[in-house]
Amino acid sequence: MTPPLISVVIPCFRQGHFLAGAIDSALRQSHPSVEVVVVNDGSDDQTDEVARRYGHRIRYVRQANQGLPRARNNGIAVATGKYLLVLDSDDLLHPDALRWLVTAAAGRDDVLCVMGFRGFAEGGQPFPDRFPTDRGDPGALLLRTNLGPPHCYLSPRSMVVRLGGFDAGLRSCEDWDLWVRLVFAGAELVPVDRVGAYYRQHTQSMSRHLITMARTQAEVMSRIYFQVRSDPAPVRRLGVESGELRRVLRCQIAREHSDAGYHLREQGNYFQALRQYALGAWWGGLRAGAVAGICKLLPHRLRRAISTQR
Question: Are 100 and 83 in contact (CB under 8 A)?
Answer without folding.
Answer: no
